[in-house]
Specification:
193 residues, mainly alpha, Rna Polymerase Sigma Factor, Chain: A, Arc Repressor Mutant, subunit A, 2 domains, 74% helix
Length: 193
């Protein structure tokens, strides 16, 4: 009896995509630029969205995306696949944004002294709440990071704390702070009240 094409068990589209991604990862880890370009095309949009939400600035987000993929290219031979490639790449993106923020914060503090921090806080408070993205972008940096990772990308507080090098309690407090600020800016009542 001959099997018809309908009865042959072909992997579904998601399984094929995973297989193709694994092949591209292996090839890119071996130095294949075309394979890495496939990975870039596959993940660049999500990495850009993450960087945009974390930074709140298009140009900074674009720089962070570029730096993320440069770092990924260099580190790819050491990728051990203990987590999904997308998770590993998002971790690099978060670290890239944090490093950039630390560098910018140091430069800002050096140039403006203590008045710079007060001006930054005042500017965030005065930002108009035009929409959710604008309100998120206007959050203080730490609160924005936690909100994006936990509230938007679904990271646990433990994963977020690990990624940001903060305590789990700090992650929870920053999320609560972010939600309170957003509720006030968007004229909503906070959850649970």
């Amino acid at each position: 009896m001959q099997a018809s094409a309908a009865t042959i068990d072909f992997p579904d589209a998601a399984a094929r995509a995973v297989i193709e991604e694994r092949k591209a990862i292996a090839a890119a880890a071996g130095g294949s630029r075309p394979a890495f370009e496939r990975l870039y095309r596959l993940h660049a949009g999500r990495v850009h969205a993450l960087c945009m939400r974390l930074t709140g600035h298009r140009e900074t987000a674009e720089d962070c995306v570029q730096d993320t993929f440069i770092s990924a290219w260099r580190a790819l031979p050491r990728f051990e696949a203990r987590s999904a490639f997308a998770t590993w790449l998002h971790r690099i993106a978060v670290n890239t944004v944090m490093a950039r923020h630390r560098g910018l914060a140091r430069a800002f503090e050096t140039a403006a002294g203590e008045a710079g921090t007060a001006l930054e806080s005042q500017a965030a408070e005065d930002a108009p709440a035009l929409d959710l993205e604008a309100a998120i972008a206007a959050l203080p940096f730490g609160a924005r990071q936690v909100l994006v990772l936990v509230g938007i990308y679904g990271f646990s507080h433990e994963e977020t704390a690990d990624a940001l090098n903060i305590a789990v309690g700090t992650s929870k407090a920053q999320l609560h702070r972010a939600r309170q600020i957003l509720a006030a800016r968007l004229d909503l009542s906070p959850e649970g009240k």
